[in-house]
Design goal:
Its EC number is 3.6.5.4. It comes from Roseibium marinum. Keywords: Cytoplasm, GTP-binding, Hydrolase, Nucleotide-binding, Ribonucleoprotein, RNA-binding, Signal recognition particle. This is Signal recognition particle protein. It is an enzyme of class 3 (hydrolase). This protein is α/β, with parallel strands linked by helices. Helices cover about 50% and strands about 15% of the residues. The protein contains 11 helices and 8 strands. The chain has an 8-stranded mixed sheet, with helices on both faces. Helix 6 links the parallel strand 2 and strand 3. Helix 3 crosses helix 4. It is elongated. The chain binds guanosine-5'-diphosphate (GDP). The site of guanosine-5'-diphosphate has 17 residues, from helix 5.
Length: about 300
């Protein structure tokens, strides 16, 4: 599919012989390949630029240790820089708050919000032994509430009974009261999405947040989001204040550059990745693995 960055860089540096330190010229040629690899991996342009600047600073003048080739050395610098920007460790979902802990799922329509809500609810129930209540706050899309109910039934997770005519804020409040009364540990709020970011959507998210006081707000985004990733993450973070990101469709061919873009622009970690349509296709985000994937 793609020629790996390691192969491309070896190609460049194989021409060089007997150097002690990486020169600016060598590094600039390598940076062109790095830039190309990042763009192919769907990393947004402003992030590509800041990333390559950081790599340049680290690489120019760096002594090439004897045991590696200059190409391997630059690949290591790129890899280390990627891991630094993606975060060294996996970031677990934080439930460290008085019960019921609300987790609010936000994102565009079709990003995988409802699926990810059910996946996470299932994991919290089965693996972490929490009592979870799910509620759909999507009152616009016909059948959205029904979709979550069906997923709840399939996975043995309770959903808030549907009351026709209630708005998202009312449903959020009702979820929190029902969870308190029912002794639930976690409430998962699946909010409405739109095709595009717009003001009514953002206002609705802010109102739901104020009503439910969620401890986690996860932005669900398709890993194939390309140049839009920066705008998307920035808008949701500025207006709603996200605590983390869930990247879906990582089972596809994409190389997951959106992870780098969204994390770089918000400073918020990618916490979860979706790796399929089934309810158990959810994994923790491992920065090193994604760094390898972005490098190809
Ligand atoms: P929502 O509109 O954001 O709630 O999106 P949905 O949860 O309804 O998901 C939209 C479509 O994407 C559905 O067909 C899901 O099965 C699919 N989907 C969600 N997450 C993943 C994933 O990680 N991998 C794959 N392959 N499909 C996914």
């Amino acid at each position: 599919m793609f020629e790996s960055l390691s192969d491309r860089l070896s190609g460049i540096f194989d021409k060089l012989t007997g150097r002690g330190a990486l020169s600016e010229n060598d590094v600039n040629e390598a940076l062109r390949e790095i830039r190309r690899a990042l763009i192919e991996a769907d990393v947004a342009l402003p992030i590509v630029r800041s990333f390559t600047d950081k790599v340049r600073n680290r690489a120019v003048g760096a002594e090439v240790v004897k045991s590696v080739t200059p190409g391997q050395m630059v690949v290591k610098i790129v890899h280390d820089q990627l891991v630094e920007m993606l975060g060294e460790e996996a970031h677990p979902i934080d439930l460290n708050a008085p019960a019921p802990v609300a987790i609010m799922m936000v994102g565009l329509q079709g990003s995988g919000k409802t699926t990810t809500t059910a996946k996470l609810a299932r994991r919290l129930t089965q693996r972490d032994k929490r009592k979870v209540l799910m509620a759909s706050l999507d009152t616009r899309r016909p059948a959205a509430q029904e979709q979550l109910k069906v997923l709840g039934e399939q996975n043995g997770i309770d959903t808030l009974p549907i009351i026709e005519g209630q708005g998202p804020v009312e449903i959020a409040k009702r979820s929190m009261s029902a969870a308190k009364l029912g002794g639930y540990d976690v409430v998962m709020l699946d909010t409405a999405g739109r095709i595009h970011i717009d003001e009514p959507l953002m206002k609705e998210m802010a109102d739901v947040k104020a009503a439910a006081q969620p401890h986690e707000i996860l932005l669900v985004a398709d890993s194939l989001t390309g140049q839009d990733a920066v705008n998307l993450a920035k808008s949701f973070d500025e207006r709603v204040g996200i605590t983390g990101i869930a990247l879906t469709r990582m089972d596809g061919d994409g190389r997951g550059g959106a992870a780098l873009s969204m994390q770089a622009v918000t400073g918020k970690p990618v916490k979860l990745i979706g790796t399929g349509e089934k309810s158990d296709a959810l994994e923790d985000f491992h920065p090193k693995r994604i760094a390898d994937r972005i490098l190809g």
